[in-house]
Structure formats: structure tokens, C-alpha cells
Amino acid sequence: MSNEIALKGHSKVVSALAVDHSGSRVISGSHDYNVRMFDFQGMKRDLKSFRQLPAPCGDHQMVALSFSPTGDQFIAVSGSCQPKIFDRDGTELGCYPRGDMYIRDQKNTKGHVMGCTGGQWHPTERGEAMSCSLDGTVRLWDVERFNSQKAVLKPAQTRPGRISATACCYSPDGRLIAAGLADGSVQIWSATGKMNSAAVGLVLPPKQQCHYQNKWSYSNSPKHILRSAHPADDEITCIRFSFDNHTMLTRCADHTLKVWDLRKLKQPVKVFEDLYNNYSQTQIGFSPDETLFFTGTSAQRDGTKGALVFFEKHSLQFVKKVTMPGSAVAMTWNARINQILVGCGDSKVGTTQVLFDPAVSERGALTCMARAPRPKDPADVQIDYQNIIHNPHALPIFREDLRKRK
């Protein structure tokens, strides 16, 4: 990648990033609570966003953004317990319900009861999306009905209590669902496996009987469990599957990236260390042909800048390191335009870096860089005015004399 542009507008690090399938529309979320929308087809060389959603989820940091397979909608997951669905132009379509925090068994609640930590739209089905939360559950949502969830996935625990889910991911074909947990384990469910009904039978005193009909299902039996995938005290920030469902990558706050073979999960195939990670949303990804995989590193206090680091999948060797402004957190490689987008920044500024090569990339940044912004016209007039509020009923000591003096 020989060229680079920066999409600006955020005042803190860009922690969530999504690009639609065509590669024409980009949405970025930040720790400043805002979401910005960019359109390569309509954007000019000044690289300004066409829309900003100010705090769409309230005063909560954005943790995940994901487009639907058709690109007409996207899910916004923040530190709130209620994910939201927006259309392609940023109009809010609905919000999922909050669960009852006084119900102990989380499979019986209709939504999350604690803040969300991740989410993703189903890669092939337009009607399903997913989110995970600090309440220890992964929930599958019905996109058409905002008052209902489709299923609740509960991890298998070795001790009583609640274990937070810190990351979740679909496999590219949508058949597997993985979650990283606060106890250091990674648990994988089959999306087509058996689910149990969440309906609860109630017996009320003295003899009346009723049936509380929960219309969703649940599963507490993962297909695979990696008990000691990472240390229990460090947060798993991202999980990714390869297209053949044979390779899985995990990124953790212990500054490592681990490569796993799903056919042999006793130990990782390779462990890459000294990849500094200071953000809970630091991601990993594959190149479109899956010959490479990459991750971001965080800036350090000694002045070391964050970077985008590439590795070769088959030889499992380091390939290249590209320095980024601040910490590299969110990232994606779009196959249609063959360009890499990286969400960067720190506590003072956030940008989305677009890496491309005119020889191999198509559209995307190449399209907008070819358009010059509208030149300034001398006839353009801008008036600086100050809003003044007059109160005719103010007390005498505060009253303003509006009479003209002769």
C-alpha cells in the first residue's frame, strides 16, 4: 500500500469501523460517543463526512459497528445494554429492549442487563444480528422485531457466578459463533445446533398454575471449549475465523495474538508476542485471499507509535509493520475496493486511515481524491451574529433600557 489518506472528525480514538460490501460507504464510531458516515462516491478531496450521528447511543463509547449483508442497514453496539439498528443513511429504525436485572438466570431475560462489549451482523442472513455483554451472554436478535430476541447463548462455567463475555464473532458462513470470556476461555457454538426452549413453568400459590411463554430459545452447551486460551485476568478483545473454518485468531490484552487450528484445539499453532494492546476493541483480520492476517498495536508511553502488523498465514512469519498515528484499534480490509481502513487515535484525536495502491485498488479513496472541492466564490457571504434574548418582564435592576436616547 503506497498511498494513504485520513478521514477526520473524531475527538478520541476510533474504536469501531464498518464498510459495506460494495466498499462505497464507511461508518466510524469513537470513544467520543459519536458516529460519522463517509461516502466515497459523493465525497470530494476535502474528505468530509456527509453525516454525523451525535451520541446515537447516549454517553456510551462505541464498541462495534456492522453492516447487513445487503448494506442497507447497520447495527451500532455501544457500552449501553441496548444495541440499535440504523438504516444506510443513519436514521434510527429501532432499539432492542433492556433485560430485567432482578432475574438471576440470564436466559429468562428479554435483553442484556449490563453493558455490551461487541456485536456483529450475520454474514449471510439479513434478519439476524448478534451482541455480547458483561452479563455473560451472547444474544441473537431478530432484526425485523425489536421486541424479541431469537436465542440466548450461555457459556459453560467451571464455577458459580457471572463471567463476562468480552468479544464475539460469526464464522464467514455463519455456522459457528465464538465468544471470548473474562475467565480466559474461548467457547464456540454451532449456530445450527440444538436449542432449548426458554419457556418457564410457574406454580403460583395456592394451586393456580400458569405458563410464562418466552418465545426465544437458549443453549448452554458449546461445541468447543478452550479453557486456557488466554490468562484469566486479561481481556480477549477480538476473535476471527478463516473462510474454511479451520483457522481461528484470538487477540488479547496480554499483548499476544494466537493462531488456532479448529481441528486440534489442545494448544495454539502459533503465539505472536510483544504486540502491545491497550484497548478493549483492538481487532484482527484476514486479507481477502487469506494469505495474510493482521492486527493493530497500541501506542506506548515511551513514545513508540501504534502500528498495523502483517503476518503470513501459511508460514506464520512476520511480514510488515506500518506505523499509524496513535494506536491502531479498529481495522478492515475490503475485498471489493482492495483497500485497508484502520481506526486510529488517542484520547485527543481520532482518524480513519485509508491505505491503498492506485495500481491494484479500485474506486474507494481513488474516486474521492480525483474530485476537487467546490472553490470559494467571492459572492459567498457569511454573517457573524450573536443571539440576544430580551426579557421585558425582568426585575428593574436587571432590565435593559431599550428606549432610544435622543
From TrEMBL:
Gene Ontology CC terms: nucleus; site of double-strand break
UniProt KW keywords: Repeat, WD repeat
WD repeat ranges per the UniProt record: 7-41, 109-151, 170-190, 229-263
Record-linked Pfam families: WD40
Name of the protein in question: Anaphase-promoting complex subunit 4 WD40 domain-containing protein
